Amino acid sequence: MKLWLALLVLSVVCSCKKHQDVTPSGPFYYKTVLVNGQTSANLRYTAVNATPVVTLSFSAPIKRESVAASLKLTEQATAKPVSLTYSFSGNDTLLTVTPQSPLRSLTNYTLTVTPTLTSTQNTTLISEVSVGLTTAIDSTDKLPRISDSLLLDLVQKQTFAYFWDFGHPVSGLARERNSSGDVVTSGGSGFGIMTILVGINRNFITRQEGLARLTKITNFLTNNAKRYHGAFPHWLNGATGATVPFSQKDDGADLVETSYLMQGLLTARQYFSSTTDASEIALRKTINALWDGVEWNWFTKSGAETNLYWHWSPNYNWDMNLPIRGWNEALITYALAASSNTHPIAKTVYDNSWAQNGKMANGNSYYGIKLPLGPAYGGPLFFSQYSFLGINPHDLKDAYADYWQQNTAHSLINYTYCRTNPKQFYGYSANCWGLTASDEQNGYSAHEPNNDNGTISPTAALSAMPFTPTESMQALRFFYYKLGDKTWKDYGFIDAFNLTNIWFADSFLAIDQGPIIVMIENQRSQLLWKLFMSCPEVKKGMKNLGFQSPNLN
To answer: Which ranges carry the Glycoamylase-like domain (predicted)?
Structure first.
């Protein structure tokens, strides 16, 4: 009897032990994730090196043979898998993972541990673990080093190809962007006309080639392009000249875009100054007819107001009702409206509409830099660039500002904001800066310190070259040497990028490419400033508005 009881007790004990071996002691889950020894609350890690060490800790020992099928690292954009090595420690509760070969720089990866991972107690992982890894900038040069002078030449020449090689084959005008087909832009074409002058001056093309292209452009504008009281629409069909609506009610005249076009045409008129070459004489005559045809003062609602209006529509009349008020990119509109031989505005329109009788003043300091005009922090950098492709701000003053101080302050504030990087976007630095209107990852926006989502636009820093020559040259070297494998393409630098989200545009825009060439040239030789400011009408018109400058004498 005693022997039977002993055998029964032994059987129960063994049965309990066997049951404990197969019964889970609790859920199987990950406890922590470390990447190179660092934690992240959302399991997203940025600025990761090319060979990161990822350590995952679990609530129970891992069954080693379940790891291979449960662990994967993929490149997000391509879904391409990356081979891994891994090891165990901490009684198999720690899994250390490393890529077998270095990861690509500025690339998003995802490390995934699926619920097929099993513990030694035969419990499966209760939920998937997903670790985001964004690799850092590779500091090595992507393109061969050349002198700064040759680099500037190269940037101007390659960017020029957007306007020369990609110009519309029928009209010669600049396409809105590299994907816009027949849609050309009047303002961007004005910038493009100025780049043709740089192209001749830098021997990218001959004078005769440039003259032939400008003759094609001006003949198309004269004979084909739709005009409204002499003003052009924002967008045109480059093959037919028909208006392409920019928006529902923006289907007629755009006076600001027209002013950019006239800025370019007048600069070209001053360049092609031969008194004996019949083609140059004819070009000047055509430009003068286009210039004199713009009814600038009609855009005060036929003289009924002391405000100058941006738009007029043949279908919606003045419904858009947008006065052109500063401070923004439209100073050139007032300079030209006051300079017209045929339809000039009065100084009261400038004071009342543009300057708002002094209300466009700022006067505050940002990062210790005083800003005379405009919104807080200055707004997007195109405010200090588009009008000043032709207007020389050196020693230019009026009742409201010193315009060299204005543009320099605006540029330095934008630079200092990016260098300071209050929102902690990855990549912002003294070498990587520049906020302006451009494409972004899911659209288009006017980026500036008060509208900043991590998108850097190369045109912003590069077109500020006259105002921040040292800082802009630093940015140029960085964009070209350090990011050139991603940012440098057939038409120069791409429109924008975001190093926090690892996004690089595949777009080029006329209004962004043009100022790069022109403002680099103004810094190098002041070519466009000298030409535009030599226009006798401009000298007279700007003086009538109260501007003072040695360049107006």
So the answer is: 323-536
Rounded distance between C-alpha atoms, residue 140 and residue 138, angstroms: 6
Q: Which CATH number belongs to the domain containing residue 257 in this structure? A: 1.50.10.140
Task: Give the burial class of 59: count Cβ atoms within 10 A of its Cβ; 0-12 exposed, 13-18 middle, 19 or more buried.
Answer: middle
> Do 325 and 374 form a contact (C-beta atoms < 8 A)?
no
Please indicate, yes or no, whether residues 96 and 213 belong to a single structural domain of this protein: no
φ/ψ region of 91 (left if φ > 0, alpha if ψ in -120 to 50, else beta) reads left
| Same structural domain, 302 and 393 | yes
Please tell me whether the peptide bond between 291 and the residue prior to it is cis, using omega within 30 degrees of 0.
no
pLDDT, tens digit (0-9, with 9 covering 90-100), for 66-98: 999 999 999 998 999 999 999 999 999 999 999
Rama region for 230: left / alpha / beta (φ>0; ψ in -120 to 50; rest) = left
Asked if residue 455 and residue 529 are part of one domain, the reply reads yes
Q: Are residues 125 and 207 in the same domain?
A: no
Beta bridge mates, 44: 132
Strands 44-48 and 129-135, sheet pairing: parallel
Quickly count: other Cβ atoms within 10 Å of residue 306's Cβ: 15
Same domain as 117, residue 260: no
**How far apart are alpha carbons 514 and 190 in whole angstroms?**
9
Q: What percent of the chain has pLDDT over 70?
A: 95
Q: pTM here?
A: 0.91
239, two tokens = 């093959």
Q: Tell me, yes or no, whether 407 and 275 share the same domain.
A: yes
Which has the closest alpha carbon to 97: 109, 106, 107, 88? 88
Q: Which of 188, 167, 183 is nearest to 241 (CA)?
A: 183
Q: For residue 379, which of 431, 412, 414 has the smallest C-alpha distance?
A: 414
Distance CA 329, CA 355 (A): 13
CB 420 within 8 A of CB 377: no
Q: What's the chain's average pLDDT?
A: 95
- CATH number, domain containing residue 115: 2.60.40.1220
Q: Is the pLDDT of residue 20 over 50?
A: no
- How many Cα atoms sit within 13 Å of 289 on the Cβ side? 12
Tell me: pLDDT of 545 over 90: yes
Q: Which residues contact 11 (CB under 8 A, 6 or more apart)?
A: none
For residue 354, the tally of other CB atoms under 10 A from its CB is 26
Asked whether residue 92 falls in the same domain as residue 184, the answer is no
